[in-house]
Design a protein that fits this description.
Helix content: 55-70%
Number of strands: 0
Order of helices and strands: HHHHHHH
Radius of gyration: 17 Å
Shape: elongated
Strand content: under 5%
Largest sheet: none
Structural class: mainly alpha
Length: about 160
């Protein structure tokens, strides 16, 4: 497998720092690019656009219409929930994909996928996904990546 098909390790601390510094724009890029990398690596899967466009359009369009078109009733904004549901579907698939990569490499699955549906735990499993995908890519490239943030919080970095 060529190095071009491998994804780039992105430590949790960097993803959080750049996401906060850019008002979450970097996080959108991160979500896009990891889907593209996984698709290229696996040879199948959803593209970054397939994952993000329905979310962005699903959230933004109903709100914009509700606010700026006087003919659209206020309740129409509730259709934004469809965009939220979509991102949960995307996350579910992503977590399963990361777990499959680990299983195929003979390692223990690092993510508890059902945490996605528990408030609070959904953030933890999302942070673990960032960390463990980064670790996976580093291992596949024969390198290691030091992530002081994740490593300082065992709940984020230990795969027991």
């Amino acid at each position: 497998m060529s190095d071009k098909s491998l994804g780039k390790p992105r430590p949790l601390w960097r993803v959080i720092l750049l996401s906060v510094a850019t008002g979450m724009l970097y996080y959108g890029w991160y979500k896009y690019i990891i889907q593209e990398e996984l698709r290229r690596y696996n040879g199948y899967g959803w593209t970054g656009i397939m994952c993000l466009a329905p979310f962005v359009l699903g959230v933004a369009v109903p709100q914009a219409l509700r606010l700026f078109d006087p003919d659209v009733p206020g309740w129409f904004g509730w259709f934004s929930l469809l965009g939220i549901v979509w991102i949960y579907i995307v996350q579910f698939r992503l977590y399963k994909t990361v777990n499959e990569l680990y299983l195929q490499a003979g390692m223990k699955e690092p993510l508890v996928v059902w945490w996605l549906f528990v408030p609070g735990l959904n953030l933890i499993v999302g942070l673990r996904q960032i960390h463990f995908l980064s670790q996976y890519w580093a291992k596949k490239q024969g390198t290691s990546i030091h992530d002081a943030l994740a490593e300082s919080i065992p709940l984020l970095s230990v795969n027991v």
